[in-house]
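Case study 2.
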Amino acid sequence: MSAAPTPHATASAQASQPPTGAATPALPLTAPPPAPSIPPPSAFDILPDLHKVLKRLLDASAQPPAATPTPSQLSTDGPLDIQHVATAANHVRLKIQKARRAVLALPDVDRTCQDQEEEIEDLEDRIASLKAALRELGRPPAAHEEEDGDQSFVSGDCMDALDLALAQGAE
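Prediction:
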């Protein structure tokens, strides 16, 4: 349809707007906002480390007292005396602090439950209005519209399938 319409061309064959060519300015490309970096699950996995410290402490209480090792002689797998618990637990404490900082750095972590519930209600209302608009589009045309020759019809089954797909997408 790049050629000019002839006088005998139908109305649908004529261009509704002239071609724009290179004169149309390009739309500026906007980069999507960067996704917040979510900390890895291992940042919150403190139970194995805590288990090791507690197991070493329990193993030390089950064994008879021996010569007290110096801090440089402490092993990471052997029994742990009560005097050295703070040193051994330091790794766990640092890991907990790092996990706490990672959680506080997440977006919207300061929002209250009430704020989130209000947003959920707003989104549910929006979904309901969009579903109603889609149902309206799926209704058969009225009797006066059929006289205009519009024979389009969307079956109710199609709208049911669309509602089901939207409901599954919301979950």
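The chain has a mean pLDDT of 75.
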